[in-house]
Amino acid sequence: MLNIGEKFENWLNQAQAAEASDIHFMVGHPPITRVTGRLDPLSGIEPLCSEDTQGLAEYLMSEAQYNIFQKKKDIDFSCRGGEDIRFRVNVFYQRGEVSLALRIVPSQIKTIEELNLPLVLKEFTHNAQGFVLVTGASSQGKSTTLAALVNEINQRQPKHIITIEDPIEYIFKDDQSIIAQREVHSDALNFPRALRATLREDPDVIVVGEMRDLETIATAITAAETGHLVFATLHTNDTAQTIHRLADVFPASQQNQIRAQLAGSLLGIVSQRLIPGRDGSFVPACEVLINTSAVSNLIRKNDIAQIPLVIQTGANVGMISMNQSLAELVESGRISPEKALAYSLRPNELRDILIRIS
Known about the structure:
By secondary structure, this protein is of the alpha/beta class.
């Protein structure tokens, strides 16, 4: 009879063969994979029992992690499966039973070209200082885009890069740069403390895995103002909402100051979502905001409602609206018009664009 480690290796091999992005383990179900957005149970495997999910959680976690899980009832961490596979893992309780969600992290970091991202994103990596945000909902490829930007610097510039992550996902190999990767809870107590310490560690580039609180946002903006290139992610749906979210975190008395700081330090915002393509893969659609003098003035005046119009007319400096990106994907045949409209925040506007290009 196979032990839990051997069972896990078998499940993992099946998931890899199916090119799954995620694996879910829940009592009463066989392991369930997500393949191009679709949930499929692994074939030929009996539904899991309490001992299976409990045993798998204990197998994947250290004793310290398991103690935290027992106290807090859920935990995030990363781990390795075999030689070349890493996972981002969340273990949680539901209806009194242990469940696990594993995101498979590719061992190879893809380039901006391989990810089919706008090449204008490379321009952000050429700056010595400033603030770059990669935004979008959960599971929309933000970490993958961030890794591509960091590796673009790593392969071409002699920089000291420090990342703060929870948990560490992609593992970077030093090339032209040296890279220190700090994981919250194991290498650092929390994001704010780690970010403050980073300013004393002689970084050129700082990468904040996720900005979750006022102190982290404030410190990241200050770091960008004081001679560092800062990359970070945020859970927002478009570029205008991102600017609102950054300011609204702060008390009303501080928001004008934050807008002024952001207007001066922001380089750009990339808002992305993954669209199911005609070939069964996911295709990235990206809205790109470049902080021109016009954008900077709108941020200072809190006239954020005008930013979408500036993006639409800013193609000459590399700006791309989400609808423009979706329309280009439809025109190239990579996604269907129906999918484009379903993922657009302004479908009526997109419908007009699609009529014009058809």
